[in-house]
Structures are given as structure tokens and as C-alpha cells.
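Write out this protein's structure.
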Amino acid sequence: MLRPLLQRGTRASTLLQYLASGTGYLQYVGTMGSARQAFQEEPDADALVNHLSDAWCWLEAHALLAREPSQSEAFRRISRDGMDLAKDPQSITQFEARERLSGPLHPALEGTVRTNFHLGDYETACFAAMKAVEIAVRDASGLDNSLIGVHLMRAAFQPHRNGKGGPLADAGAEGGEQEAVSALLAGAMGAFKNPSSHRTVDFDDPIEAAEIIQFADLPLRQVERAKRRQAAATA
């Protein structure tokens, strides 16, 4: 049974399903030994077993394989989370997406955004993330409420020319860099804040949703830096 698993190129999700299909306790040494025996005639046997080993270690590192308390240290069992993932192969994608957001986010993203993401409402989470960017930019720039979305980003981060520029643009940065930042934030706002009209995002893909939220974290931190520049200039 290991042959088709390894021939497809081992992934942790495939290995998890394979392990869940068996009975009894699991042993790393035994599983690797079975794989090596199955591929003893293959020229790339070592590479295949190494892929399998990497997948096993990933499962352990993410608590999908756990120690079996009734046995010696060598024995493992599939954890409760692991069994849930094994029953639904698509859920591994959701697990990997949550891992991308496992670290701290900007405080503006830690409430509604993270909550909706974990509930699986990716469209609301992404919209809320970009809305948080819009609110932070408007508050820090002091620009009028009539400016929204792309126009707000362009006005707030307008590159400095002849001593004039957007209130959040870094006057000390090279002109091309200022223009790039303005274009980056305006483009992101245009693409992700209003998905119902632009339809550029596949909100069925939790990994893509997680990446949009991660992206929103960047301009929020840029706004914090701009606020520090403003405070230093008026000190």
C-alpha cells in the first residue's frame, strides 16, 4: 500500500489518510522499514523514504500524531484533530491556512477578521481586513470621509514632489519607491475590498483568504510607521 502513496509524491495529508486506514498503534521505525522494503528495487528509494519521513515529522509537529500513553515512547496514535482531517481530505487545506495565521496579527485584525476566518466566512474576513486598512489610513492621514478605497490610498500615499505629498508617504524614500507603495496599496484595496463587484478572489480557498489577511497586516504596520514619522516631525 505504500507504493502508490509514495509514487504520487508524499504529502502529509496523503500519509495521514494512509495511516488512518490501518489498525493498531503506529511506529515510525516500522513505517519507514515498510517503505524501504517496498522500494528496495527503486533507484530513488532513499529519496522516497525521506519524503515519507518529512511528512511523518510534519504530522507530529502539528499534533496530528500523538504519543500513545499506554505504550512505550516509540508508539504513536492519530490525534483527534488528525482523525478529523483524515475523514475530510479537504480540511487539510483549512488547517494549513490557519497555520499561516498562527502568529500575531496587527491588533486591528485580531478581532472580527480572525474570528470570521476561523468560522469559515472568508469573504467577510477579507473584507473586514481591508476595511481595517481603510479606517487606519483615514484616521492617520486625517483625510476626508468622502475619500474611500483606491482614492483614499492614492491620496494618503501620494509621492512627494516639489515639497508636497500624501500625509502618510515617506518623504525620505526614493520617488520610485513612494510611487510603488502607493500603487501597491491602491491595487490591493481595489482588488480585495469589494469582491462582489470585482470577483478577483476565490473565497472558497482558505489559503488565498489567509494570504489576503496577511497582506492587510503589511499596510497597517506601514501606517504605524507613518504615525511615528509624524510624531517625530512635530516633536
